[in-house]
Write a structure and sequence with these properties.
Layout (H helix, E strand, L loop, with lengths): L13 H9 L4 H17 L4 E6 L4 E6 L7 E8 L2 E6 L20 E4 L9 H13 L12 E6 L14
Parallel strand pairs: 1-6
Antiparallel strand pairs: 1-2, 2-3, 3-4, 4-5
Length: about 160
C-alpha cells in the first residue's frame, strides 16, 4: 500500500488575498488602507511588502528583504484607524515633532487620510528611514508582496456600534 499523500491546498496569490483582509474593515478604513498602500508603493517601489493579518492589527510592512527584521516602516490598521509605523523611529531626526510613541525603537504617525503621506515632514521621515536601512533598498526593480501570517483569531476590524 502506498502511504496517503496529503493534498496540497491551492493558495491564492497575495494580490488575491489582500482584498479579503481589507474587506474586514469599515469602508472608510478599507479605502484609507488601499490609498496608503498605493502611496507607499509609489514611494518605495523596490521594497517588499510583508503582510500580517494578526490578532491586533492588519500590517503591511515595507522591507529590503523577506525578513521582518529588515522592515523600514509599515502601515498598521485596526478598527480605530491607520498609522505609519517606523521600525527604527526612535533614531530618526524629527524636527517637526511628528512621531508619536515613546518605546525604545518604534515610533508612528497617525494617518487620518492618505494625504498625510505627502506632507514634507512625513516624506522626510520616510526618506530618512529608507536611506539608513541596512541592507539598502534595491536601486531598480519592483518588490514583491508576501503574506507572512494570518491569525485565525482576530480582534474586530470594525468599531462596535455605539448604543443610542
Amino acid at each position: 500500500m502506498k502511504p496517503a499523500q496529503a493534498k496540497a491546498k491551492k493558495v491564492a496569490s497575495p494580490e488575491k488575498q489582500l482584498p479579503g483582509f481589507i474587506a474586514k474593515f469599515a469602508p472608510a478604513n478599507a479605502k484609507l488602507i488601499c490609498e496608503c498602500r498605493a502611496a507607499m508603493r509609489r514611494l518605495l517601489p523596490t521594497a517588499n511588502e510583508l503582510v500580517y493579518d494578526n490578532y491586533n492589527f492588519f500590517v503591511i510592512g515595507y522591507a529590503t528583504t523577506e525578513r521582518a527584521s529588515n522592515c523600514i516602516l509599515s502601515i498598521a490598521a485596526a478598527a480605530n484607524g491607520v498609522i505609519l509605523s517606523f521600525y527604527h523611529g526612535a533614531t530618526l531626526p524629527d524636527p517637526n515633532h511628528l512621531l508619536l510613541g515613546n518605546g525604545k525603537q518604534n515610533r508612528f504617525v497617525r494617518l487620518p487620510d492618505a494625504g498625510t503621506l505627502r506632507l514634507p515632514g512625513v516624506l522626510a521621515l520616510i526618506n530618512t528611514a529608507a536611506a539608513q536601512t541596512k541592507p539598502s533598498l534595491p536601486a531598480k526593480g519592483c518588490g514583491q508582496t508576501i503574506i507572512k501570517s494570518i491569525s485565525a483569531k482576530q480582534r474586530p476590524r470594525r468599531k462596535a456600534p455605539s448604543a443610542a
